[in-house]
Task: structure prediction
Amino acid sequence: MTRPVAIVSGRGAGRWQRGHPWIYKSDVIEAPGPIPGVVTVREKNGRAIGVALWSPASEISLRMLDRDPDAALGGAWWESRLRDALDRRDVVERHATAYRVVHGEGDALPSLVVDRYARWIVVQFMSAGLESCRGEIVDALGRVLEPAGILARNDVAVRRREGLAESVELLAGDVPRTIEVEEHGVRYLAAPWDGQKTGAFLDQRENRAAIAHVSCGRALDCFAYHGSFAIHLARGAREVIALDASAPALARARENAALNGFAHVQCVEADAFEWLREAERRKERFDTIALDPPAFAKNKASLPSAIRGYKEVNLRAMRLVASGGHLFTASCSFHLGKAAFLEMLQEAAQDSGRRLALRAIYGQPVDHPEVLGIPETGYIKGAMLEAVD
Result:
């Protein structure tokens, strides 16, 4: 099989040998040409190390796909990888109709995201090399998943670094503006065309179910967005406040609460930092709190200020937890590692003046696999705290 060839340094080859699929531009000794696509990768001595996606404009120039340099990357190859990924989701399908089918590098399909919302599929092609395989991938998705429609949510900034345009595009069938899905016994509306990510935050699904098990009394969902935590809290609490700065997001949260028959969810439009400070002054108490803020650390340079923000919002929430109550807190910032996340919580707890026991540490669900040798596949950190003072 004749393909363009990329020659890489020993350092680049070694990275792949240790299990990480990225080879950076600085490790490409001879480029395979100006056209993105599938290429054979060789070391300087001529030894072939596999097949990769080539993105000439990107700092991540090569994304390794297969260790077999003779692998035929046609429709059958993509279908096989997709079926493998789907098989690993068998446990998820038992309690959710919305989940991630492909988590990029975590499923050995670099730069590809595939999310299922009931009968519909939302995809993201996040590299130029992958984009060149779009037709074969879409056809394989049709055979494996048999969706009613496929939508491309390619409106992600990372595509600009690949020399690609951002767009939202219907690729097959039809996809509605909202889709009703279910997880762990609650229902909500996903927004595949214009919602966050591909339409909903699927990566916190199991953590939402976890806090539902301890929810009671008065409950608070900070940074509620569409109320995904709030509707789980409502299963056990007598009163739930869903707090968010976005009026449109809260309108959807009200819809989701009504969809489940939860009349005791109150949506409050406010800045979470200010509202928590005021609630502390009022000496309010909540038996259950969910704290799932957006990614404060967008890059390494913003990490110090992000940690200050995380610490402040956690400190405020800690002071609001009733004795015997629970606080679930999370970070989705990749640049804030697990150790730094726990250190921040420890410092916030010390400054709060409360005694808080760490009851559990959470990560990502099975459909968002975090591969130990590929740190970029993991970003969710969560902790369940109990006030024991």
Summary: The chain has three domains: 5-66, 75-173, 201-387. The mean pLDDT is 96. The chain has eleven helices and 20 strands.
